[in-house]
Design goal:
Layout: H1 6-15, E1 19-21, H2 29-36, E2 47-49
Parallel strand pairs: 1-2
């Protein structure tokens, strides 16, 4: 289950960022956000930036030349 480990949650609280960037798989985003809800500094606002992955290309995907 990809999530934010205890060490990572502690590091986030220590660094006190305004934003973190999620660079994982789209289907694991909710698990990551849920894991942040149990961090010690959970009352401090935190923005999670992410980008949805692109859908598969039409015709079977990328074909190298």
């Amino acid at each position: 289950m990809p999530a934010c480990s205890t060490g990572s949650r502690s590091a986030i609280c220590t660094a006190d960022p305004d934003m973190v960037v999620y660079a994982g798989r789209t289907q694991d985003l909710h698990k990551f956000i849920d894991s942040l809800s149990v961090r010690v500094c959970r009352n401090d606002p935190l923005t999670v930036a992410f980008s949805l992955t692109a859908p598969p290309l039409e015709g079977g995907g990328f074909q190298p030349s």
